Amino acid sequence: MAQSFPEDVLEHVFSFLNYDKDRNAVSLVCKSWYEIERLCRRRIFIGNCYAVSSEIVIRRFPDVRAVELKGKPHFADFNLVPEGWGGYVYPWIVSLARAYPWLEEIKLKRMVVTDESLELISKSFKNYKVLVLLSCEGFTTDGLASIAANCRNLRELDLGESEVEDLSGHWLSHFPDNCTSLVSLNISCLGSEVSFCALERLVARCPNLKTLRLNRAVPLEKLPNLLCRAPQLVELGTGAYSAEIQSDIFSNLAEAFLGCKQLKGLSGFWDVVPAYLPAMYSVCSRITSLNLSYATAQNPDLVHFVSQCSNLQRLWVLDYIEDTGLEALAASCKDLHELRVFPSDPFDAEANVSLTEQGLVAVSEGCPKLQSVLYFCRQMSNAALVAIARNRPNMIRFRLCIIEPRAPDYLTLEPLDTGFGAIVENCKELRRLSMSGLLTDRVFEYIGTHAKKLEMLSIAFAGDSDSGLHHVLSGCESLRKLEIRDCPFGDKALLANATKLETMRSLWMSSCSVSFGACKLLGQKMPRLNVEVINERGLPDSRPESCPVEKLYVYRTIAGPRVDMPGFVWTMDEHVSSRLSRVTERRGD
Amino acid sequence: MEKGVAYDNDMNLKATELRLGLPGTDESQKECSSFVKSNKRSSEEMDSSCNEEECAPAPKALVVGWPPVRSYRKNVLQQQQKKSDSDVSGMYVKVSMDGAPYLRKIDIKVYKNYPDLLIALENMFKCSMGVYSEREGYNGSEYAPTYEDKDGDWMLVGDVPWDMFVTSCKRLRIMKGSEAKGLGCQ
Fold this sequence. Notes:
The complex is a heterodimer. Chain A is of the alpha/beta class. Chain A is 33% helix and 17% strand.
């Protein structure tokens, strides 16, 4: 049957398939479809850079134009992955440079990117267009200068929330005068001031610029200069949103915003002076995405501004919004899809604001499209969680962080098992869940029973025994990523569900009760898993088998054990016993 | 399954006991003696060189990576809090004196403590305010320094610790001693 269609017809049909899942399915139909598909696949997504080698990728897909790579595990965001762990992109860039001269896009997340890598990117690809670096580190503004100078057709430069060594703002001036192709520029994570003149001229000569996220050093008084030159902007990240209160600054700002008829997204707002918020009122009704999570404004200024945005779909905000603000949000923003409330003072045990579970309940009641939540608070009850679950069966992402570990239901002092149980039972499409508070094995039983579409689960300070982990691993059919810290889960559940781990992208367990012996056994039993132990205090001298590991990272791979591990990371495979004994011999010196 | 992985024995139960403080030196942990911190939970990760005997239990706020706020966000908020502390209050404040025709402005961040501030005020306004006492305030002096705090209340200068004063003082007023009498009392 497949032979009745000529190759180019099939290729044309396949060109409509954009999702990896679909392309993967197509390539399994028969050998000729596999061959045709692999020759015309242009975009590659690699969720774990150690799951596959660049050689394997290049061999299968000879003509790729866009590559997306992720490196460190998610818990690296919270300093749980030690410095030097890995995630180096340079070897990938070297291979990609050799194999894909027409590569246009590279997107990286949680990877170590050096100036060398950036320079190689800037010089290796003839039509390079997109560079996105999310939560990356290891490079300086010198590397950015290479990109600016050498990528003639650069469309997108997004530095995400990367850690950049900021040597100077001069790099921006390296964009040549004939560079007019920019569509998206995000430099919000940079500390030093870029030359405003250079920035202004760059913005003026890029007529297709749709996204501009400035860094804090760009003063508010100068913002109108940029907005006037880019009235077509769809997304704007302001610099510092503060200035002396002067009427001419205000009127310039208001007038500039008035000209931005396409603006849909706002972010930035460092050092916000609330008196300047009304300057944006003219755009508020069109705003669908608002990131005020760095804005230390308080009510009533804060809630007044947010309530103006009646078409808001996504709101990121600090807990200064308080319950009252969230109630107002629920009343005015009926199109809200996503809410993230971050803590203004995460390390204070005492609440500095009046934000409780009530705010979240109110939004779940008032916003019928709410499907994605990240909420930091200091108290929670089963009743509230049950209400939220009943209100919003369409919830897809639910991440709740009660600041005090193991905090019980503040009304009944019971564990929050029932509440989270209601979430997984009612929200049948739930794909991501992060839990907190006092939780017993019971909640994991609920999760294993009901959370059939759950793909990512984050657990901390929860559970009583291995059966908790066992419920999750044996029940959650769609589970791809599991990350656990400070839970009493050990060897039994891990080993009993060894084969499950090959169906997942990765498992992270830190400060749990998994022993070296179990890790070794797992590594030996499962050759297609890398079972990596992170032990900064070195290997145990005595009775290593039963000593618990500090951190465990298990991931499926077809690339074998990695070769770039630092001294405190070991791959537990069949070679490890001899390696372990060699180490203990050396330590005897 | 290997015998060594039996997790029901006493040692491993202890291993699963979660604590935020340092563990005591248990009999059962002697087997992992060189690994003295192997069963410690996250609160000890803050200082890996710390010896059990030397360190006090870590305060809860220092559990590594908890609450799960990205360092980028933490840093930005910390920076802003510092900045707002210095902008909103404490830097340049207006100083008025009863009977004086115009106000002055001073930067209270320039001073290190109350005596410094009082001497400066005395010189600026050519008045005497004497010495502060908790019970008596500035009783007996010709003038007494007062200030308006963040909540809008008028307070006697000297009642609160210096650092707290600097961040909460919005303006100063040097009152006639006779009018300030009531302020010195509890």
